[in-house]
Fold this sequence. Notes:
The chain is built from 10 helices and 9 strands. It has helices at 3-13, 18-29, 33-38, 46-60, 65-69, 93-103, 120-128, 141-153, 210-219, 238-248, and strands spanning 72-74, 77-79, 110-114, 133-138, 159-162, 174-179, 223-232, 253-258, 264-270. Strand 1 (72-74) and strand 2 form a beta hairpin. It is elongated, with a radius of gyration of 21 Å. The mean pLDDT is 96. Bound molecules: S-adenosylmethionine (SAM). The site of S-adenosylmethionine has 24 residues, from helix 7 and strand 4.
Amino acid sequence: MQILQYLKNFYQLKQLGQSEIDHLLALALHKNLNYLYKYPEKIIPISCQKKFVKLYQKRLNNWPLAYLQKNKEFYNLNFFVNKHTLVPRPDSEILVTQALNYLANKKNLNVLDIGTGSGCLIISVAKNNKNQNYLATDISKDALKVAKKNARTHKTKIKFLSSNLFTKIPRQKFALIIANLPYLTKEQMLEPSIKHEPKNSLVSGKDGLRHYEKFLQQVQNYLNDHFCLLLEMDPQQNKDLQTLAKKYLPNSKIEIIKDLNQQNRLIKISH
Ligand SMILES: C[S@@+](CC[C@H](N)C(=O)[O-])C[C@H]1O[C@@H](n2cnc3c(N)ncnc32)[C@H](O)[C@@H]1O
């Protein structure tokens, strides 16, 4: 069957969006999207049709498109992703922008990313500011393999370390620490669209704050006199996270920063 007719047949089912269907067919054909639009009359080989149907069914079963493509664009860079890493979210780009604002015109600062996952945050920062010393950690060795691969692809100089929060991080002082640690509750994890993403990337105790509370308990010994922490959160956690920040870092300044959808997304704790 020809590409255009084949696509139309699947559009009519209205189970997935047209753009997603296009992406899946391009993937099955090992071509880019332009190929579909340039050669709508080309015949799709049976083997590619079979591959497409498999991908289509996985997507219907909520596999993220990024896992099927093994790729996700973030901050204008392409990141390899697999089932061991959270799919980078556009909402997290504000954290990169804030980190770059903080680092502008500064040199040789120690910068740490805890819970690096695919490495999307620290790599986007390091790619745009080469003047600092970067360290990234994760509890998951499988995620770290992905982050290292992405750091190589983007030719960024970052050290990677496997660590449960601060346990394996050598005693040194950081000027900037960024983190998008797990912050969902178990109930939020029931959302079907995230069921294939790693649980240990997403869930954090009953209220979603177990990781950040531990992080704030441990962080004091690793901070410069002047420091900045940028932590991604669920918009609902705004008040509770501010309370925790005041408890563990009482002399710091606290700001809440909104994402592109005007949701409270980051807590910035600085001194
Ligand atoms: C929400 S994901 C964020 C990944 C990536 N930074 C991003 O923004 O896409 C959280 C990450 O924290 C890691 N993580 C979970 N518990 C951790 C812990 N106790 N110490 C360090 N990393 C942890 C997970 O493996 C996961 O990669």
